[in-house]
Amino acid sequence: MSGAFSIENDEKSCNKSHDLDFSSNVYLSSFSPVSTALDCPWLVCEVKIGESCIPGLIDTGAAFSFVDYGLIDKRNIRNCQTLTFNAANSSPLYTVGKVEGSVRVAGEVIRSQFYVAKNLIHNAIIGRDVLKTIRAKIDFKGNLISSDYKKEIASLELKLTGANISTSLGKSQVREVTDLLNRYERVFAKSEWDIGRTDVCKHSIPTGKYLPTAARCYRIPLSLEKHVDSEIEDMLKAGIIRPSKSPWRAPITLPKKKDGSHSFCTDFRILNEKILRDQYPLPEIQQIFAKIAGRRFFTSLDLQKAYWQIEICEEDKEKTAFSPGYGKGIYEYNVMPFGINNAPATCQRLMDSILEDEKNAIAYINDVIILSDDFNSHLKHVARVLKL
User: Fold this and answer.
1) 303 and 274 fall within a common domain
2) Does residue 22 contact residue 181 with C-beta atoms inside 8 Å?
3) Which GO MF terms are attached to this record (predicted)?
4) Cβ-count burial of 388 within 10 angstroms (0-12 exposed, 13-18 middle, 19+ buried)?
5) Is 112 within the bounds of a domain?
6) CATH number of residue 336's parent domain
7) Last residue of a domain, one of 145, 178, 212
8) For residues 298 and 368, is the Cβ–Cβ distance under 8 A?
9) Is residue 268 very low, low, confident or very high in pLDDT (cuts 50, 70, 90)?
10) b/e for 201-222, b at 16 or more Cβ within 10 A?
11) Do 365 and 351 meet the contact criterion of CB atoms below 8 Å apart?
12) Tens digit of pLDDT for each residue in 298-332?
């Protein structure tokens, strides 16, 4: 499952530091998610209602603030007119009353009224009513929130609990899963360019006695030149590539994706013909199915741009050189690029070495499957993998 952490419960079916970042999208599902996962971590602050401290999702799209019915003392609920709100996906949100609580955000603690909802998929939602009261200003890029009251700037806590809730997991189980994810949030990528770098291995490009080859560059349509410039700038900033004076050179291609945008790809076909093949075996699908058979709980983890988390041996970096064409310069990869021979073998060898002692985890290149017989054991197995 690309870009997703997934916990699936099928009731009917039979300390190293590797700096490997997992994708931050999270699904809690039973084979099919009930809604679309968020593309980024959520912004969270502290809500206190009675004696309960609850993490509240800051939602600038919500006009009012809400709290989940199952988390509060029912004696504190003040009856009011039953109202129905529409969620972002147009599904109805039914309220049963109001409750008073406090919110701590940007150094401010204010009292606020919360609508109590029975079918809320978050613990609490902090809407514009609270944000307006403290005159909050949110910097989403820097994950900062400021309040005009004290001119104080606080860092927003990033939570990785963007979960699609399934009927197959009980509410307490969902909380245990989200608590686990939050406990290990450091291993999840916060953005597209939040990419780890492992020191366990490096990728080599053995070309034997072959001499360098410079391939002809392909013409870039004028309409896509800005896209190419932007991609190169992003990769330079992230340390994925660096300027090069290499005698090797590959062209780039810009294949169109289903959504109409264009991928930035390096055409390594000529280089690939000269690379000595790494014969490290990949798992066969039947082997994976055999290991999964009979298990009830599964988690899949997808490494964030896994190839880019593996550095290339310094002496081989020049072999990955590419150029978009005249006036665009020439660059080489610092990390293992997509489309190059032996990359799957290098990634598989790395994952096998990391998971060598984990009997409840299987890796297939950049995907990890964790499997267990019961829920409590599964939480422990997931935690063990996230600790690696």
Assistant:
1) yes
2) no
3) hydrolase activity
4) middle
5) yes
6) 3.10.10.10
7) 145
8) no
9) very high
10) bbbbbebeeeeeeebebeebee
11) yes
12) 888 888 899 999 999 999 999 999 999 998 999 99
Cα separation, 272 vs 266, whole angstroms: 12
Task: Give the DSSP per-residue string, 189-231.
Answer: -SSTT-----SS--B----TTPPP-BPPPPPPPGGGHHHHHHH
CA distance 282 to 144: 44
Spatial CB neighbours of 182, under 8 Å, sequence gap ≥ 6: 159, 160, 161
- pTM: predicted TM-score of the whole model, two decimal places: 0.59
Whether 327 and 358 share a structural domain: yes
When divided into structural domains, the chain yields a total of 3
Name the β-bridge partners of 249. Answer: 214
Residues 182, 255 within the same domain: no
C-alpha distances in Å from residue 100, one per residue of 65, 103, 122, 234: 11, 10, 18, 46
Residues 218 and 363 in one domain: yes
Residue 22 inside a domain? The answer is no
Question: How deeply is 62 buried, as exposed, middle or buried, from its count of CB atoms within 10 A (0-12, 13-18, 19+)?
Answer: buried
- What is the residue type of 304? Q
Given a cut of 50, whether residue 5 has pLDDT beyond it is no
CA gap 207, 276 in Å, rounded: 6
Q: In terms of domains, do 242 and 163 share one?
A: no
Range of the domain at 161: 150-187
Which of 122, 305, 377 shows the shortest CA–CA distance to 114?
122
273 and 140 in a common domain: no
Same domain flag for 93 and 156: no
Same domain for 231 and 321? Answer: yes
